[in-house]
Design a protein that fits this description.
Structural class: alpha+beta
Distance between the termini: 63 Å
Strand content: 15-25%
Number of helices: 4
Helix content: 55-70%
Shape: globular
Radius of gyration: 21 Å
Number of strands: 5
Order of helices and strands: HHHHEEEEE
Low-confidence stretches: none
Strand order of the largest sheet: 4-3-2-1-5
C-alpha cells in the first residue's frame, strides 16, 4: 500500500480488530446475563430487594464487568497487533509480569482499594442511586451514589459537591436507600 504496510498485515489487523470486537460484545452480553441471573437468584432465595434496587445492582456490576472485559480484550488485541508487525511480544509480556509484581508490592493501597471495592460490590453495600453516608478516618461524606468503581466511589451531596472516596478508606457505610420500597 502507499503507507508502506503490506496488505497481508492490514488484513491480519482487521481480523484481530473484528475478532476482538465480536469477543468483547459476546463477553459483555454473557456477563450481563450472568449478573442478572445471579441477582435474580439472590432475590428468589430470600432477598427482599425491590425491582429498582435489583436493577441498580445489575447496572453497577455490569458496568464493572464491562470495564474489565474491555481492558482484557483490547489488551490482548493490542499485543496481538504488535506481533502482526513482527514485534516479539515475549519480552514485553515478561516485563509486564515483573513490573506487575513490583507494582503489587509498591501499590498496596491500590490493591487495598480494589479488594475493598470488590467486597463492597459482592456484599451489595450500596449501588448507583443509593442515598448513603461514607465515613473514613478523615471525613464523612453524605449523598447520592453516582458511580461505583472497584477503586473509587463517587457521590454527590445535597449542595452539589462531588466526593471521590477511595474504597479502601471507607470504615463505615450507612445506606438510607437499602430496604426501601
Amino acid at each position: 500500500t502507499s503507507w508502506g504496510v503490506p496488505v497481508s498485515e492490514i488484513v491480519q489487523l482487521t481480523i484481530v480488530a473484528v475478532v476482538a470486537a465480536v469477543s468483547r460484545a459476546a463477553a459483555v452480553r454473557l456477563a450481563d446475563r450472568l449478573v442478572r441471573r445471579t441477582v435474580e437468584r439472590s432475590t428468589h432465595s430470600g432477598g427482599t430487594d425491590s425491582d429498582t434496587r435489583r436493577e441498580q445492582r445489575v447496572a453497577t456490576v455490569t458496568r464493572l464487568t464491562t470495564r474489565v472485559v474491555n481492558t482484557l480484550v483490547w489488551g490482548i488485541a493490542g499485543v496481538t497487533a504488535l506481533s502482526v508487525f513482527g514485534i516479539n511480544v515475549a519480552p514485553i509480556l515478561a516485563s509486564a509480569g515483573v513490573i506487575g509484581v513490583a507494582l503489587g508490592f509498591g501499590a498496596q493501597t491500590l490493591v487495598k482499594d480494589y479488594l475493598a471495592g470488590l467486597f463492597m460490590i459482592v456484599e451489595d453495600q450500596y449501588s448507583v442511586g443509593d442515598d448513603i453516608e461514607l465515613a473514613t478516618s478523615n471525613v464523612t461524606a453524605e449523598g447520592t451514589v453516582e458511580e461505583v468503581g472497584l477503586r473509587v466511589t463517587r457521590l454527590r451531596d445535597s449542595s452539589g459537591v462531588v466526593w471521590y472516596i477511595r474504597n479502601g478508606e471507607v470504615q463505615r457505610v450507612a445506606n438510607r436507600s437499602k430496604g426501601r420500597p
